Amino acid sequence: MNPIALQIGSLKIYWYGIIISSAIIIATLLAMGEAKRQKLDPDHILNLVLVAVPAAFVGARLYYVVFEWERYAGNWLEIVAVWHGGLAIHGGLLGGLLAGIFYIRKRKLSFWQLADIAAPSIILGQAIGRWGNFFNQEAHGGVVSQEFIGRFPQFIQDGMFIQGQYYHPTFLYESLWNLSVFLFLLWYRQKPVKHRGRVFFAYLALYSLGRFFIEGLRTDSLMLGPFRIAQLVSLSLILVAVIGFQYIRRQEAKV
């Protein structure tokens, strides 16, 4: 599996970058369409993307580097080599969220309206972005038999054949789960609601539920002692979502 899509002289264009860029563009167009449908200026989506995406990349990289510090200590150039992989989605979500809140407060917009607009776009972007892991041959699970991997298309088999062994295509499991969540959120946000935030909390809960179980199959998890950090964060986000839904229900009951 060659992670380089195109090379012009010394310039290398990686599949990872192409896929992530495509995910951002598609997600942005989707969110702009929904903003327009809700009679919100789509330029706010573009502005949010310009603010949140760089912050998300920085957050994703810093999050990963912090928990893999022994690997990066003293190797400063490798810290910025994101094309080699090493972006933690939870760090990206945190960085993007903080930058988004800054923009929303400055423009005096509704956080919950924009959160509900953005949630399906974010999960779709995550579904697409996982294919960058495929080309980098990372974010996979443990060793599996040839009989097991034979159930998958040939190109998946070829991509998961690493150093003489086949591995669980966990990137594919998560991509398909995220795509399912995306389709559910598209349906869910059509339901009439009295208070915003339901779509965003549904995103947090469903994405985290899938991530919790898929993370248990991976071999490259960031660890905190004996615990997988992504699983701890996923449980925390599910709890946040449950509390958020309860709060919305109480608010609706008062109406």
Write the layout of secondary structure elements.
Blueprint: E1 4-8, E2 11-14, H1 15-37, H2 43-67, H3 69-72, H4 76-79, H5 89-107, H6 111-136, E3 143-144, H7 146-149, H8 154-159, E4 161-162, E5 165-167, H9 170-188, H10 198-215, E6 223-224, E7 227-228, H11 229-254
Antiparallel strand pairs: 1-2, 3-5, 4-5, 6-7
Helix pairs in contact: 1-2, 1-6, 2-5, 6-9, 6-10, 9-10, 10-11
Strand order of the largest sheet: 3-5-4
Return the average pLDDT rounded to an integer.
93
Our measurement of the CA-to-CA distance between the termini, rounded to an integer number of angstroms, reads 57 Å
Low-confidence stretches: none
Total helical segments: 11
Helical coverage, percent range: 55-70%
Find the count of extended strands (DSSP E, 2+ residues): 7
- Principal-axis shape equals globular
Structural class: mainly alpha
* Multimeric status of the protein: single chain
Total domain modules: 1
Helix and strand pattern: EEHHHHHHEHHEEHHEEH
Strand content: 5-15%
- Summarize the main sheet: 3 strands, antiparallel
Summary?
The protein has one domain.
Describe, in plain words, how this protein is organized in 3D.
This protein is mainly alpha-helical and 255 residues long. It has one domain (4-254). Helices cover 68% and strands 8% of the residues. It is built from 11 helices and 7 strands. It has helices spanning 15-37, 43-67, 69-72, 76-79, 89-107, 111-136, 146-149, 154-159, 170-188, 198-215, 229-254, and strands at residues 4-8, 11-14, 143-144, 161-162, 165-167, 223-224, 227-228. The strands form 3 sheets. A 3-stranded antiparallel sheet has the order 3-5-4. Helix 2 packs antiparallel against helix 5 (89-107) and helix 9 packs antiparallel against helix 10. The longest helix is centred in the middle third of the chain and has 26 residues, at 111-136. The protein is globular, with a radius of gyration of 19 Å. The termini are far apart. The mean pLDDT is 93.
